[in-house]
Amino acid sequence: MDIHIIGAGSVGMLVASFLAEFNDNVRLIVRRESQANQLLQHGLVRKNLDGTLLKSNVQVAMDLKGLPKHSFVIIAVKYGELNDVYPILRTIHEDIPLLFLQNGLAHLEEAIQLPQKTIAFGSCQFGAERENDYTIVHRGQGVLKIAIERGVKTPFHLFLQSTNKQFQVTFEKSAENMLFEKALLNCFINPLTAILRVKNGMLIENPHTHTMLKNLYNELMSAFPEKKDQFPFEEVEKLCRKTANNTSSMLGDILQNRQTEIETIVGAVIKKAAKRGENLPILNTLYHLILAIESGVKM
Ligand SMILES: NC(=O)C1=CN([C@@H]2O[C@H](COP(=O)(O)OP(=O)(O)OC[C@H]3O[C@@H](n4cnc5c(N)ncnc54)[C@H](OP(=O)(O)O)[C@@H]3O)[C@@H](O)[C@H]2O)C=CC1
Ligand SMILES: CC(C)(CO)C(=O)C(=O)O
């Protein structure tokens, strides 16, 4: 099956590189000609967790024209960039399965309006960082969780062909639940790292950031007590440890003056809590701090 990945950023390049280990027909869809040229010239280079390098030859294109019916499309752009991608997806065959890899919750309701018969959502538990337009650094070990919201599971069996322990896929029952759980994890890590401009590991290394992380955790768990068993505080600490050297995607956005995914992650969790009458004062403060930084306030 031909695999087309829209967005050759951190997640898109990492996933493409792992898929290219067992599939010769992986194609990255990019929006800049300069990136297409770099990828064609150098190949796609992955820096593994153990420091080794792996180069793969992936195909590169700048649009989805002439997509065969037996294709598989993965969408790896940021939430805010999906509005440019939805119109393109509406033009491709409705038998082509789609897999969305965004953090946050807001895209779930939007994506299921598309005409495709099979639509799934993924939650990346790994860390990835783009070093340049053709080099991707694997920053933290973790599985790719997939939940099929509509349609059939068969096309997703392609992921089970991976024999690389660093790229394993698990299937989840509910996309909403899966995305919400990941959004909670992102609420713990992303705003704090973005405001303090620290890598994920610092949140557990410094006693003050550790206290803030714990207070935030207690606040969220009192609003969503049903999640406590699944997320003991140790799990949050473990994720910080596993992705210690990662620049969280929110920090990455702030550093590059790009729009963050604050609304689809933190905004969506605040709304969910409000629906059950819960205020989240700490998370609300972090939310407004990120919006203030985004609107130009210098820290
Ligand atoms: N990075 C990480 O460790 C993790 C990220 N995630 C989530 O994964 C999602 C993707 O994040 P990430 O990979 O970090 O983001 P990046 O910004 O690194 O990558 C997004 C890519 O999409 C490209 N793009 C945007 N619009 C289009 C378009 N219309 N056509 C083709 N390409 C397009 C961008 O191009 P250009 O380069 O030209 O701007 C960019 O290369 C986010 O929701 C993020 O929260 C989840 C877990 C971990
Ligand atoms: C898992 C984590 C926190 C890795 O940094 C992430 O999802 C992100 O940066 O958005």
TrEMBL record:
It comes from the Bacteria. It catalyses: (R)-pantoate + NADP(+) = 2-dehydropantoate + NADPH + H(+). Pathway: Cofactor biosynthesis; (R)-pantothenate biosynthesis; (R)-pantoate from 3-methyl-2-oxobutanoate: step 2/2. It holds the Pfam family ApbA. Its EC number is 1.1.1.169. SUPFAM superfamilies: 6-phosphogluconate dehydrogenase C-terminal domain-like (SSF48179), NAD(P)-binding Rossmann-fold domains (SSF51735). Keywords: NADP, Oxidoreductase, Pantothenate biosynthesis. Residues 3-147 form the Ketopantoate reductase N-terminal domain. It is an enzyme of class 1 (oxidoreductase). Residues 178-294 form the Ketopantoate reductase C-terminal domain. InterPro entries: 6-PGluconate_DH-like_C_sf, 6PGD_dom2, ApbA, Ketopantoate_reductase, KPA_reductase, KPR_N, NAD(P)-bd_dom_sf. Transmembrane segments: none annotated. Belongs to the ketopantoate reductase family. Catalyzes the NADPH-dependent reduction of ketopantoate into pantoic acid. This is 2-dehydropantoate 2-reductase. It comes from Ureibacillus galli. The lineage of its organism: Bacteria, Bacillati, Bacillota, Bacilli, Bacillales.
